[in-house]
Structure formats: C-alpha cells, structure tokens
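Regression test case RT-17, inverse folding.

Input:
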C-alpha cells in the first residue's frame, strides 16, 4: 500500500512511521508513506497558503492553487491519482468496514485540513471521499490521518504477526471484546475467573461470548441491537 499525506505539518506525520505495528509495516516495506508539505506549493516568499473567505466570515481558507499543485505532483510521482480522501468533520464517520475497504486500495492520498477549511473547488474536483473521526472538531486533519493509517495498515497481510488477533477485534466480531487477564492469577486479592484457569476451551469460549454480549448490551446498545438483528437476518435466510 502506498499512502501519501498532504499536510501543513509533515514532520508530525513522519514521526508516526516509527510507532509500533504501523512503524514495523513501513520499515518492512508492507506499506510506504510520503508526506507532502502544502507550504512547498505556496506562490509567495512568505509561504502563505490561506486567505479570507469570499462573502466574509470568520477564519481563513486554504487556497486552491497549492492543493491542486500538490495533488498533481502526487499523481506525477505515482503515475496515478490514487483514492483521494479529505479528512474533515463534515465527512462520514470512520467505521471498521471503511478501514477494511481502504486496506484493499493500492494507493490512498489523505488531505489534512487546517484553518477554517479548504476552497470548495478542491473538494468538488479532486476529492473522492470525505471521512471524519466523529462529531467533533480538531485543529487539523493530522490526528485523523494517524487513525486512518493505523486502522488500514494493521489489516495488511504481514503487518500483525498474529493475524487472528485482528480477526477477533471488537468490530470485526460485531461485539465489544471480552475481559482478558494474565499472570499472576491473584493480585491484591483480585482473582482471575476460575473458568479461565480450567483449561476447558469450550467453556472458556462460552464464557467469553457471554461476556462480549453482556458488555456490549451495557456499553454499546446500538452495537448490540445491530448484532442481534444480524443474527435474526441470518436465521431468516437459512430457512
């Protein structure tokens, strides 16, 4: 996977290449990351990339020219435009299904917003998809870029040594995960549930499934209802 990030803070994004699973994926060549500094495409000596919005209003808007030229340089280097994503609170909230879908894309270009926003013509002409992390506002798109890169890259073959761990994560399963414990079996009077020490794998799996169901029902009733509807639909289709 090739990931290009267009940003006003390239050094911040580059530092992410050295972190954990994602860092090892980049180091081993499973994925490639390149940052493009929007200020390199400014048309004056002061590196101005923003201006006041037409019609008035608070905040500054990133001008179209530096962004068009940055995307053009990406396309020239890669011999393709890639799947171009603008990271904005106006986008669709990121879901695990999006990460799985994007992990199958050969070339992803992430545009990190900054200031009040970007010129609409960039969105209209260059952007294939808009994604957010949720219904809140950040100072820029770099944190969202970190989240999307991590969510995508960890799904690439070979990125995680134990691929079963990614298949059993919360959202692929559709339920929140069960509690986990490790040594010692008793700590400050707090004991590990007996079933986990029994060695009876069928009973352990039964216990973990009940824990997942109970925790999801309590903490994320929306996920629980969706999971139960999925079971009902599967039952109906099997008739």
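Golden output:
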């Amino acid at each position: 996977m090739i990931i290009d990030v267009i940003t006003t803070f390239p050094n911040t994004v580059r530092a992410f290449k050295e972190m954990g699973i994602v860092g090892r994926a980049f180091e081993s060549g499973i994925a490639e990351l390149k940052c493009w500094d929007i200020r390199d495409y400014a048309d004056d000596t002061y590196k101005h990339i923003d201006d006041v919005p037409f019609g008035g209003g608070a905040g500054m808007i990133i001008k179209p020219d530096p962004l068009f030229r940055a995307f053009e340089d990406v396309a020239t280097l890669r011999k393709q435009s890639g799947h171009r994503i603008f990271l904005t609170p106006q986008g669709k909230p990121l879901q695990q299904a999006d990460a799985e879908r994007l992990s199958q894309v050969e070339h992803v270009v992430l545009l990190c917003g900054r200031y009040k926003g970007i010129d609409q013509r960039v969105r209209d002409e260059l952007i294939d998809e808009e994604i957010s992390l949720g219904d809140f506002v950040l100072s820029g798109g770099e944190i969202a870029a970190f989240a999307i890169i991590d969510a995508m890259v960890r799904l690439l073959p070979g990125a995680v040594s134990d691929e079963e761990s990614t298949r059993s994560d919360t959202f692929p399963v559709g339920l929140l995960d069960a509690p986990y414990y490790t040594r010692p079996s008793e700590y400050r009077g707090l004991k590990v549930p007996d079933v986990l020490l029994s060695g009876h794998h069928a009973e352990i799996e039964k216990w973990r499934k009940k824990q997942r169901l109970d925790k999801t029902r309590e903490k994320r009733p929306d996920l629980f209802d969706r999971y139960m509807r999925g079971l009902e639909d599967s039952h109906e289709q099997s008739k």
